[in-house]
Amino acid sequence: MTRLATSMLMLGGLAGLALASTAGAGTMAGDRFAVVVRYSNDALATDSGTHALYRRLEEAAERACPVASNTRLISGEVLKCRQQALTAAVEKIHNQRLATLHAAANRKAG
Fold first, then answer.
1. How many CA atoms lie within 13 A of 23 on its CB side?
2. In whole angstroms, what is the distance from residue 98 CA to residue 62 CA?
3. How confident is the model over 66-92, as pLDDT tens digits?
4. At what angle do helices 47-64 and 96-109 cross, to 10 degrees?
5. Within 13 Å and on the Cβ side, how many CA atoms surround 59?
6. Is the confidence at residue 41, as pLDDT, over 50?
7. What secondary structure, in 3-state letters, does 38-60 show?
8. CB distance 36 to 21 below 8 Å
9. pLDDT at 36
10. Mapping DSSP to helix (H, G, I), strand (E, B) and coil, where does residue 87 land?
11. HSE-up of 18 (CA within 13 Å, CB side)?
12. pLDDT on residue 104
């Protein structure tokens, strides 16, 4: 199975946070966070695999753009950071099936 990795740089939210993956590793470089998200080309060949990767990207965006520790409210800035990180990841992966899923999720959310 071929493993692919995509590296993303993202400025977002209040602290310049970016997308992080459950399997990824990141390093801080100034106010940018470079992250590697690993996925299989085979996973993107099926609907279930695409959904699983998309969910991992959503969860990573939630961790990368956290709610402040002194509140439970999710600010507009945090939501914007998460959406930007997720969109950047989908665009970087450049897969039609994943892009279609992302567009459908945005329609539901909007």
1. 12
2. 18
3. 887 787 788 888 889 889 999 999 999
4. 60
5. 11
6. yes
7. EEECHHHHCHHHHHHHHHHHHHH
8. yes
9. 67
10. helix
11. 21
12. 95
Task: Give 31's contacts (C-beta < 8 A, 6+ positions apart).
Answer: 11, 15, 16
* 73-82 contacts, C-beta under 8 A, 24 or more apart: 77/13, 77/14, 78/13, 80/12, 80/13, 81/12, 81/13, 81/14, 81/17, 82/12, 82/58
CA gap 81, 66 in Å, rounded: 9
In angstroms, the Cα distances linking 55 to 21, 29, 48, 75, 82 are 10, 26, 11, 21, 13
Structure tokens that stand for 12 in this block: 């977002």
Query: In the prediction, which pLDDT does 8 show?
Result: 37
Distance CA 50, CA 77 (A): 27
> CB atoms < 10 A from the CB of 52, how many?
13
Report residue 108 as tokens.
């539901």
Q: Which residue has the tokens 């695409």?
A: 50
Backbone φ, ψ for residue 22 (5° rounding)? -60, -35
